Automatic annotation (TrEMBL):
Region (Disordered): 1-25, 294-330
Superkingdom, natural source: Bacteria
Cited InterPro entries: Cro/C1-type_HTH, Lambda_DNA-bd_dom_sf, MLTR_LBD
Keyword Isomerase assigned: no
Gene Ontology molecular function: DNA binding
Sorted UniProt keywords: DNA-binding
Organism: Wenjunlia tyrosinilytica
Biased composition (Low complexity): 1-17
Name this protein carries in UniProt: DNA-binding protein
HTH cro/C1-type domain segment(s): 32-104
């Protein structure tokens, strides 16, 4: 690992045959890995936080666990040791740290290796896509990856069922919400068929990500928390992605019927722009009422007033909303 000293003492020569640029590169790699490790919370990747955590993000041993590499070996990387790292291990570390396309490329350059899968899609959301989400209002829209993580959304999608901003980041996953969140479970019209198809689509997509820690962690969480998911997962059903009608039962305005469309944001199946266009005029009017109610609650909160109906708590279903509830579950 360490290099021998130069054969002759030359003024200005380094005490090691290792070029100074390599030493600088290893230190830059160590700092880069540390910065990316510290930005990921343990909850985000399905790990317990524990009572004595000092680091703001993941521990070194947790990254090693997620990437399936040795703890000592990964520690040496962050200590800028002179060790060889293979492209396969770098790929595992990049996935464990959820690096985007630019960060992944930077990692391989610093490590002096060629990326075995160059151009891997970036999980981030660009400013133009975020602008598009906002301009689509009052229609609900979001950016979702093939793992069902909701990585960005507009105001209409935020309030479609519950206020997504109030949920922990790691819980903003439609699979997790559909199987474990009480309000989302209630909101899905024809829920049994919906979750069956979701589980089958998820298994189809996971075939290309079997070794990735974030996918395995989500499956582990669902298997632990949902008997319904355990039963569906054991069937090994598969379904290809498609566009179909979607129906939600919002507790404030009632049943919402949509034509659902997914628009891929890259050449491969990955992040996609998901739009929900009202399939009837009543849904359009109810969406407008929902957004107006959300704006009124936000304004009231800014003035320090108590929230009205549809704010915190779960209002009783009355009027047309109750009628829709009976129809949806009939």
């Amino acid at each position: 690992m360490s290099s021998s000293a130069p054969s002759a003492a030359v003024p200005g020569a380094f005490a090691s045959s290792t070029p100074p640029s390599d030493t600088i590169r290893r230190r830059e790699l160590a700092d880069f890995l540390r910065s990316r490790r510290e930005r990921i919370t343990p909850e985000r990747v399905g790990l317990p936080r524990g009572p004595r955590r000092r680091t703001p993000g993941l521990r070194r041993e947790e990254v090693a666990q997620l990437a399936a590499v040795g703890v000592t070996w990964y520690t040496w990387l962050e200590q800028a040791r002179d060790i060889h790292v293979s492209p396969q291990v770098l790929d595992a570390i990049a996935r464990a740290l959820e690096l985007d396309k630019n960060e992944r490329s930077h990692l391989f350059v610093l490590a002096g290796q060629m990326d075995p899968v160059p151009g891997t899609e970036c999980p981030g959301v660009s400013a133009p896509v975020r602008l598009m989400l906002d301009r689509l209002e009052p229609f609900p829209a979001c950016v979702m990856n093939s793992r069902y993580d909701v990585v960005a959304y507009n105001g209409a999608y935020r309030h479609l069922v519950v206020d997504l901003d109030e949920l922990p980041f790691e819980d903003r996953n439609v699979m997790w919400l559909a199987f474990t969140h009480p309000a989302w479970r209630e909101a899905l019209v024809d829920r049994a068929e919906t979750v069956r198809v979701m589980a089958a689509k998820f298994r189809t997509a996971m075939a290309e990500h079997l070794a990735e820690p974030t996918w395995k962690c989500l499956v582990k969480r669902l298997l632990s928390e949902s008997a319904e998911f355990r039963e569906l997962w054991a069937r090994h059903d598969v379904v290809m992605p498609d566009n179909r009608a979607k129906c939600f039962l919002n507790r404030e305005v009632g049943r919402l019927n949509f034509d659902h469309t997914s628009l891929w944001l890259g050449p491969q199946a990955g992040p996609r722009l998901v739009t929900y266009v009202p399939s009837d005029e009543e849904t359009r009017r109810r969406l407008e009422r929902l957004l107006e109610s959300a704006r009124e609650r936000a304004s009231a909160a800014g003035r320090g007033e108590a929230p009205g109906p549809g704010g915190t708590g779960e209002p009783a279903l009355t009027g047309s909303v109750a009628g829709d509830h009976e129809e949806a579950w009939a």
